[in-house]
Design goal:
The complex is a heterodimer of chains A (275) and B (251). Chain A has two domains: 12-191, no CATH class; 208-272, no CATH class. Chain A contains ten helices and two strands; from the N terminus they run H-H-H-H-H-H-H-E-E-H-H-H. Chain A has helices at 12-25, 37-51, 55-64, 77-93, 98-137, 142-179, 181-205, 224-231, 235-251, 255-272, and strands at 213-214, 222-223. Chain A starts with 11 loop residues before the first helix and ends with a helix. Chain B has 251 residues and is mainly alpha-helical. Chain B folds into two domains: 3-203, no CATH class; 204-251, no CATH class. Chain B contains twelve helices and no strands. In chain B, helix 7 (119-131) runs antiparallel to helix 8. Chain B is flat and about 65 Å long. Classes of the chains: A mainly alpha (275), B mainly alpha (251). The interface between A and B is large, with 110 and 118 residues.
């Protein structure tokens, strides 16, 4: 039908527009029903309007992208790049089915969310806050400004590059890339750094000590904390972190139960003088 | 600045930060260290505000990761309410943490309400898509959730900040020492939840020894956060090189 359209209609600027709209509103319209479907559709508008000039075709494309969608908003922008490439192919050659586009989207959103949650939110964000926290503790506003600027800058750069790469790589190579050992290595490296930092920060900021003393006769009283420290320093904080970890691992994300438990334990141990 | 202005500004800030306008930018605005900057400017005591913000930040340091977008705890509501009151009443940071934590829990329910209401805009967008009305879809994705968010979020912080400090002052005068001490314990205990959640999100059981390594590097060798970041990066690189030689046994 439209074989005379050979050159690509989508420019670099269009892709940047998609990336930017998505970045601004990833979580803004998030709902329990279809999560990020609304922002995915809204972010695709600049591209879809250019590709589909008739009202029927545009409406069909918009409806297609209101399907369920949810991923991590930084690593996930690669999906937008791929989707733009696929939409372009569909509009120009009309040899691509709707289910192929939706299939790629739903197939990639899980793995990309896994990478993004571990690297962007699990490692980079707490790392940047913790790095500048000593400034905040000394009453310096830079302790808030620096994490805000660096985190925003780093994540904007990553998501921008991934969105454009997704478009240029296309769907075949992206599936190959996910199987590639280098991606696994990258995730592994980031996870190691994240866990190491979490350990270091736990050691500094989880503070649980016991003032408990047992005086049997007149002599030196037995100080519980000294005994614990002689076994290994930081035993109680370590037990607290792993106790909560094991509970969450077994029972799922029941944060409110743990919050309540911490409040109850704190009050009881204060009353009895154990902690 | 007058308490009315402060209460209005804090209410607006909470609404704007929780709007999530700008994905990672807004997530940093939600953090206590950033809320503290605003409080410091409003109350003219940056140093005190930052110190209290840093104290509350410790509780929420590990809660940055929110698997599936579910908020395990809302640091923004906690700090938008607790930091102004703590600075005004000259509260101890550990007490400010105790004041913050309950509001962090309330914030979870506020967010659940928001995501329930947001479903309405998706249905509206379905109709706009049928008619090819793209500006209607933009409104559903940005304008309507923003307006609804204002109605849900602004009043909580405004009312608590405006009427809160007199109530808190009276309460503090009456508070027995065992209760004060239990808040101190809570402040030392709560960060453990955040770190546990992050281990869970990173989610690789076989890598947990690296957590223990980081923990005892600080406990035995007393290294700083920056030093830990340097050593941690080197260990990650070394380990990576090792595992690729073994043919990536670490799947």
């Amino acid at each position: 039908m439209s074989t005379d359209v050979v050159s690509s209609k989508i420019t670099k600027k269009d892709i940047t527009k998609v990336w930017f709209i998505y970045y601004m509103g990833v979580e803004l319209s998030n709902s329990y029903e279809r999560l990020q479907s609304l922002i995915f559709c809204a972010s695709m508008i600049p591209v879809l309007k250019k590709l589909y000039t008739t009202k029927e075709a545009l409406s069909e494309a918009l409806t297609r992208h209101l399907n369920f969608f949810n991923t991590e908003g930084v690593a996930g922008t690669i999906i937008h790049g791929i989707t733009i490439a696929m939409e372009e192919q569909k509009a120009n050659e009309d040899n691509l089915s709707e289910t192929a586009i939706t299939g790629i989207k739903t197939g990639l959103m899980g793995p990309m969310a896994g990478i993004g949650d571990a690297v962007i939110w699990g490692a980079i964000m707490p790392l940047l806050i913790a790095l500048f926290l000593p400034l905040a503790m000394n009453g310096n506003a830079m302790g808030g400004i620096l994490p805000l600027v660096t985190y925003t800058g780093i994540t904007l750069a990553i998501s921008y590059v991934l969105c454009h790469r997704g478009y240029s790589l296309g769907k075949e190579s992206i599936l190959g890339l996910l199987q590639d050992g280098r991606i696994k290595e990258l995730i592994n490296g980031a996870s190691i750094l994240g866990l190491f930092m979490m350990g270091a920060l736990s050691a500094s900021y989880v503070k649980i000590t016991t003032p408990f003393k047992l005086s049997i006769l007149e002599g030196q009283p037995i100080v519980l904390q000294e005994i614990l420290d002689s076994i290994v320093p930081g035993l109680l904080p370590m037990l607290a972190v792993f106790g909560i970890y094991i509970y969450l691992k077994k029972k799922g994300p029941r944060y409110n139960i743990i919050l309540t438990a911490i409040i109850v334990i704190s009050i009881l141990s204060s009353l009895t003088g154990i902690l | 600045m007058g308490s009315l202005t402060v209460a209005i500004c804090m209410g607006l800030y909470y609404w704007f930060a929780r709007l999530r306008f700008g994905y990672t930018f807004s997530s940093m605005l939600l953090q206590p260290v950033c809320v503290a900057i605003v409080v410091g400017l409003l109350l003219g005591d940056m140093s005190k505000a930052m110190m209290i913000g840093a104290g509350i930040q410790l509780v929420y340091l590990g809660v940055t990761s929110t698997p599936g977008g579910n908020v395990p705890s809302d640091p923004a509501l906690a700090s938008c309410i607790a930091i102004p009151i703590a600075v005004k009443t000259g509260m101890d940071p550990s007490l400010a943490i105790a004041l913050a934590v309950p509001f962090g829990v309330i914030g979870v329910f506020v967010d659940q309400l928001r995501r329930t209401i947001n479903a309405a805009w998706v249905h509206m967008a379905d109709k706009y898509a049928e008619n090819g009305n793209t500006s209607g879809i933009y409104c559903c994705a940005f304008l309507y959730p923003a307006l609804a968010g204002f109605i849900i979020r602004f009043p909580i912080v405004f009312a608590t900040t405006y009427y809160g400090d007199t109530v808190v002052n009276k309460f503090l005068a009456l508070m027995p020492t065992w209760l004060t001490h239990s808040f101190e314990i809570m402040g030392g205990f709560l960060p453990a939840l955040g770190f546990a959640i992050t281990i869970l999100v990173i989610g690789k059981k076989q890598l947990i020894p690296f957590f223990i390594l980081g923990f005892f590097a600080v406990k035995f060798l007393n290294i700083s956060v920056m030093a830990a970041a340097v050593f941690g990066t080197c260990i990650a690189l070394l380990y990576r090189g090792n595992s690729s030689k073994d043919g990536g046994a670490e799947a």
